[in-house]
C-alpha cells in the first residue's frame, strides 16, 4: 500500500536548493495539496527521516510506497547517486504500470539551468520555477511570492490529477540504484 502521495527528490547537498525546498516548495505544495484533497496528504522529503533512522532503508521504503515523484532539478541532480536512483526507480515503475495507457509518475520541476540536463530528461514536460528560486525566507514577503503561489496552485492541481491516476500499489515496485555518469568536463579552462 502507499504511505506517501508525493516524494520530493532534490540535491540535498546543494544548500540553496535545500533551503528553497524546505522554506518554500515543500510546505506550500503540502498545504495546497492538503487543501485540495479530501484526505490528509502525505509528502516525503529528507526532513521526513527520523533522527536515528537508517537513511538508505527509509528512503528506499518511502520511494517504494509513494505514488508520485517530484524531482527538483538542477544540472548536478543528474550526477547524484541518490537523485538518479529516485528518478530511475519511478521511471521503471512507469514502464511496469503502463498497461493500456502510459503512467505519469514523475512531475519534474526546474530549479535552475535546464540546458545542462541529460538528453533523457529533456524528453519530459517540465514545470519551470527558475523565476521563483529564491531560497531565503524573506522571499515570502516579496511581491514575487504571489506569482509563485499562483504557479504552485496550478502545480498542486496537476499533481492531484496524477495522484488519482496512479496505479494500484504493487509489492514488487523496484528501487533501482544505477551509477551516475561522470559529469562533463568544464567548458572553461582552469587558471
UniProtKB/TrEMBL annotation:
Q: Which residues form the TIR domain?
A: 2-163
- Which region is the signal sequence? none
Stored PROSITE patterns: TIR (PS50104)
Family annotation (SMART domains): TIR
InterPro entries per the record?
Answer: TIR_dom (IPR000157), Toll_tir_struct_dom_sf (IPR035897)
**Superkingdom field:** Bacteria
Which Pfam family is an annotated match for this chain, by its short name?
A: TIR_2
Q: What is this protein called?
A: TIR domain-containing protein
Amino acid at each position: 500500500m502507499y504511505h506517501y502521495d508525493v516524494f520530493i527528490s532534490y540535491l540535498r547537498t546543494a544548500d540553496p536548493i535545500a533551503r528553497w525546498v524546505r522554506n518554500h516548495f515543500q510546505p506550500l505544495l503540502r498545504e495546497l495539496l492538503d487543501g485540495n484533497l479530501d484526505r490528509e496528504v502525505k509528502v516525503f522529503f529528507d526532513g521526513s527521516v527520523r533522527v536515528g533512522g537508517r537513511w538508505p532503508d527509509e528512503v528506499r521504503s518511502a520511494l517504494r510506497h509513494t505514488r508520485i515523484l517530484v524531482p527538483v532539478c538542477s544540472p548536478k541532480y543528474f550526477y547524484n547517486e541518490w537523485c538518479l536512483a529516485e528518478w530511475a526507480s519511478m521511471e521503471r515503475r512507469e514502464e511496469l504500470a503502463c498497461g493500456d495507457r502510459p503512467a505519469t509518475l514523475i512531475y519534474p520541476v526546474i530549479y535552475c539551468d535546464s540546458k545542462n540536463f541529460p538528453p533523457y530528461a529533456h524528453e519530459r514536460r517540465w514545470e519551470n520555477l527558475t523565476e521563483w528560486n529564491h531560497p531565503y525566507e524573506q522571499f515570502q514577503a516579496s511581491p514575487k511570492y504571489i506569482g509563485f503561489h499562483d504557479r504552485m496552485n496550478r502545480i498542486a492541481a496537476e499533481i492531484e490529477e496524477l495522484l488519482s491516476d496512479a496505479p494500484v500499489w504493487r509489492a514488487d515496485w523496484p528501487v533501482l540504484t544505477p551509477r551516475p555518469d561522470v559529469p562533463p568536463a568544464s567548458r572553461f579552462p582552469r587558471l
